[in-house]
Amino acid sequence: MKNTAKKLTLWALAWPIFIELFLQFLLGAADTLMVSRISDDAVAVVGFSNQLFSAVTTLFVTVASGAGILIAQKLGARKNEDARTIGIMSLTVSFGIGLALSAVLYLFPRPISAWLQLPEELLPLAETYVSIVGGGMVLVAVMSALNTAIRNTGNTKGPMYIAIGMNVVHVALNYAFIFGAWGFPKWGLLGVALSTVICRLLAVLVLLFMFLHAFERPIRVRDLKQFHRGLFGEILRIGWPLGVNMSCWVFSQLAIYAYIAMIGAAELAARTYMNTLESFCFMLGYSIALALQIQIAHLFGAGRMQEAYRTAYRALFIGLGIVIVNAAVIYLLGKPVLGLFTKDETIVAFGVSLLGLNILLQPGKMLNMAIQNALNAVGDTRFTMWISLGSLTIIATGVSYWFGIGLGWGLTGIYIAMILDEYVRGALALTRWRGRKKLREAEGGMADDKVQASGIRQESVLDV
């Protein structure tokens, strides 16, 4: 890679990621707004389907995430061919997993929706939407692999530009298919599904072109048959705990939404709107955490352990400052902003009651995101998996039910449990990072390599 040092500053990596995430957020908001013009049932089906799709993506994120970290480490160690091979395997394996998921979702949309307790009157709409968008899940798998590989080479601008293009095309196609504009047929929810798949297909084609030229040696079509068992083992070693970690988070969120639904419809609406406000709050902090993971993985691969260790704290302090300011702004402006979403005074009151708790939530979330990503970057993914498995199961899922339902504290009790979960995971991750376990192991391995190389040189001199 050329000019790698220039590209790998925290800000240079973070701001394109932020723009990409922000545009993805706008894409979802525009989707919801336009689909609401069809019917409330259509909105419910899209929301339900997105939860289903989020759950199944964990199957290929395992490969893509592990591959991304290894690509950054190998490039940092100047093992460009290994990085290239890992990128190729990530793409081909993700394609295979995505193809299998697409087949299942395309063939069995109605039984799957019924099994997940979707109301019977919504099943016809779900059959249409899940079969088309779910049938294109292979595109999501390929996008994930390509995006992650490209981003971890240090090129975070490429995926950002593609996100911009996707937003423009998706909104235009949604408008055309929903309202029958510009001579297009008026297809309603079918049109929204087709619009989603078309945008993803176009994005995959552009990302694929970018991926073929992402490494020092261009990738040819015949290279896609490459498979290295040892390197794939490294991908799984790092990747499978990340998949478990993500699965724990997805299912804990599903459980929390189910608890809130048990409390009442107004509370569920308030949580949904607060989730939107919180996304604005932590999005830049999350971008910094993702950029930090890329930067530390490169430094770790290059053997710059002290710099990697300090970089985590620098990013954490920057991120904390950003999310605290954002949370304070939302606290001050929250009531009028919530009023833009709904005129229901009960829902607004529930949302306003959570604004103060959000100020406590966001620093814990930032601590958790930054330090867990730092640990993941050096390959300590099993530790982050175990703390997530424990805290998300016991606190985020169990204590949320106890506080919210058992003790009758409602939405406030659930938020308190969410705050507790973030700080527990963050504190455990910080303790692990301060111990420098993986960094010391890597330093020891480097020292052994130097001793071995020195011995080989001495033997060569004696032979002469």
Automatic annotation (TrEMBL):
This is MATE family efflux transporter. The chain crosses the membrane at residues 52-73, 85-108, 128-149, 161-184, 190-215, 235-260, 280-300, 312-334, 346-362, 383-403, 409-430. Pfam families: MatE. It is found in: Cell membrane. One of its GO terms (cellular component) is plasma membrane. Coiled coil: none annotated. It comes from Paenibacillus soyae. InterPro entries: MATE_fam, MdtK-like, YsiQ. It is a multi-pass membrane protein.
